[in-house]
Specification:
221 residues; mainly alpha
Length: 221
């Protein structure tokens, strides 16, 4: 019996403990580490052209047409170095495990998270605010990993989400209304966007295809 190679390789990469799994995880980590310097470069440019100018131009301004483009640009902008530092590590950690599940799924899931979180903020956010930052995407990745673990019965996804949740439990209250200058709407809606993305882009096993277990090695013959 033979397996469709793309599907089989994807299954192997998603199976904890296989060589393909660790290789996929390593590539994802390197990719996410390469994304962070880009965010720092954008922040440096923002400071160079005048602090906050890029934020005003590319941030989400709720219920204003000139702030709608922030749905696309705001995750790449931050309100200072402290804001960026606070997002960099969880973005690398969560993004690595989301990306390890497949490049195409990563891109599509990220777009869904950005759309749900960004449009939601534009609709219900404070109209006197300008919303920037990758934290909505970060919460989206957290929601995606938890939901993916449930719908795909992937214990390692659940384990990763639980571990990172323990590391950053003090941030989880930011999905609730607060008087602080924090977009709880973006966090909550980003989380829901991640849940939706995990359901939309869940891995479906073709009928009749046997499940790969443990350290199964795939070879071309």
């Amino acid at each position: 019996m033979s397996y469709g190679l793309p599907e089989a390789r994807a299954d192997a990469a998603a199976t904890f403990g296989t060589e393909a799994f660790y290789a996929s995880l390593g590539r994802a980590f390197v990719t996410m580490c390469a994304v962070i310097p880009v965010l720092f470069l954008i922040e440096a440019i923002d400071l160079g052209v005048g602090a906050g100018r890029l934020d005003m131009a590319g941030g989400i301004i709720p219920r204003r047409l000139d702030g709608l483009d922030g749905v696309l640009f705001s995750p790449f902008l931050h309100a200072g170095w402290d804001h960026l530092y606070g997002n960099a590590v969880p973005l690398i950690l969560l993004g690595t495990f989301v990306l390890a599940g497949g490049g195409k799924r990563f891109v599509l899931a990220t777009l869904v998270i950005m759309a749900v979180g960004g449009l939601g903020v534009w609709l219900i956010g404070d109209p006197n605010s300008v919303v920037v930052g990758a934290s909505g995407v970060i919460f989206g990745y957290l929601g995606l990993l938890v939901t993916r673990g449930l719908v795909e019965r992937s214990w390692w996804n659940l384990g990763v989400a639980a571990f990172i949740g323990l590391l950053y439990w003090y941030q989880l209250y930011n999905i609730l209304p607060t008087d602080q200058p924090i977009s709880w709407q973006g966090h909550l809606l980003g989380l829901l966007g991640g849940v939706l993305a995990a359901i939309l882009f869940r891995r479906r096993r073709p009928k009749g295809q046997p499940e790969l277990h443990g350290r199964t090695t795939l070879t071309d013959i």
